[in-house]
Amino acid sequence: MGKGKLCIDIGGTKIIFAIINRDGDIIKSKRIDTPKSKDLFLEVLTYNITDYLQFSNNIINVSIAGRIDNTGKIIFSPNLPILGFNFMKFMKGFSSKVTIENDGNCFGAYHLYAGDLKKYKSALVVVWGTGIGSSIIYSKKIYKGGGLAAESGHIVYDYNTGEDIESAIGGKSIEQLYGIDGFGLQKLAERGDKKALKAFDEIGRMFGFYLSSMILILDPEAIIIGGSFANSWKFIKDSVYKVVNDKKIRRKIKIEIARGKFYVVRGCYFIDEYENSNNKL
């Protein structure tokens, strides 16, 4: 078995560990549920990183559903139990070659360096699952601003309550609102359940407002949407397009749906290489 980078995708629902080589092949991988307590979370990471590191070249790239500051501390992670924890210091206990990036930019990195975005100068990439992450492609690079750009899932959606768009239609919130997760809602919609179809219509309308705002700000050449809700796009797209069209966007923007399961962890492979990576050694 050849060695590659250890790439870890830490999401609010699941964690994926993968050894990925230069050709983009996943040599070895494992998926586990994300623990809800900090102690168990760190215990599970320690066990699996130690196990997988023996198959790696000692480079560890991590995608995380949260924000990390320049000291390595987690400053925002609504779906992970490690707020305030110095995650970079923890990871450096396994290897000196560690790079950490948010999940949206890892998803964007895959499509920029290995996918269809090579042909575009600008694009918006959205990963919509437990939460909502995004990545901005500008001049064929991932735009990071001061280091934390593109956290668009936390743009305020309801100015009366201060609720952000992730709190309105992220997977965690949808499960709380409808009493069923996105996958279950999709299964009901596929059977023609009227309540599920109505729910997706409303979810699509809210996502359409979010997408319209992003389009008006960025004017991207293309948009790619991935994550678990990409699988339900056929139930959402009509209400999304209606809102976007009502906003009189000046031109038709290409929207592509990415339905693969490993885009984020595959994009993780590139984050120690692309220019101006946040928290790079």
TrEMBL record:
SUPFAM superfamilies assigned: Actin-like ATPase domain
GO molecular function: ATP binding; metal ion binding; N-acetylglucosamine kinase activity
EC annotation from Swiss-Prot or TrEMBL: 2.7.1.59
Protein's UniProt keywords contain Cell wall biogenesis/degradation: no
Superkingdom in the source lineage: Archaea
Primary enzyme class: transferase
Keywords: ATP-binding, Carbohydrate metabolism, Kinase, Metal-binding, Nucleotide-binding, Transferase, Zinc
InterPro entries: ATPase_NBD, ROK
Pfam name, any one: ROK
Reaction catalyzed: N-acetyl-D-glucosamine + ATP = N-acetyl-D-glucosamine 6-phosphate + ADP + H(+)
UniProt keyword ATP-binding present: yes
Protein name, per record: N-acetylglucosamine kinase
Native source organism of the sequence: Candidatus Parvarchaeum acidiphilum ARMAN-4
Lineage of producing organism: Archaea, Candidatus Parvarchaeota, Candidatus Parvarchaeum
